[in-house]
Amino acid sequence: MEYNPKSLKAEEFINDGEIRDTIAYAQAHKNDTALIDKIIEKAKLRKGLDHREASVLLACDDEEKVKEIYDLAEQIKKDFYGNRIVLFAPLYLSNYCVNGCLYCPYHLKNKTIPRKKLTQEEVAKEVIALQDMGHKRLAIEAGEDPVNNPIEYILDCINTIYSIKHKNGAIRRVNVNIAATTVENYKKLKDAGIGTYILFQETYNKKNYEYLHPTGPKHNYDYHTEAMDRAMEGGIDDVGIGVLFGLDNYQYEFAGLLMHAEHLEAVHGVGPHTISVPRVKHADDIDPNEFDNSLSDEMFCKIAACIRIAVPYTGMIISTRESQEVREKIIRLGVSQISGASRTSVGGYTEKERPHDTEQFDVSDNRTLDEVVNWLMRNDYIPSFCTACYREGRTGDRFMALCKSGQIQNCCHPNALMTLKEFLMDYATEDTRKIGEAMIEKEIANIPKEKVQNIVRERLVKIEQGDRDFRF
Ligand code: SAM
Question: Are 306 and 330 in contact (CB under 8 A)?
Answer without folding.
Answer: no
